[in-house]
Amino acid sequence: MPIDSISRVALRWTPRGKRNRGRPKETWRRTVDRDLKTRGLTLQTAPTIAADRAKWRSLAVASSTRRRRED
Description:
It is a single chain. This protein is mostly helical. The protein has a domain at 26-71. Helices cover 59% and strands 0% of the residues. The chain has 4 helices and no strands. The longest helix is centred in the C-terminal third of the chain and has 18 residues, at 53-70. The chain is flat. The termini are far apart.
């Protein structure tokens, strides 16, 4: 993935400033970090696994199965 691709920029972007009063402090990045952590991954190791389509597919299937059980 090129360094200036929109997906890479979005992944590394950190918002500045404060949120409005009453706004939850949950961000997309925190959600991704939490989801990866439950699978034993970090934001740094996930791209390596994503490059191996078989590993990524098995992770995605396991994740969707787990999510259905949690609901």
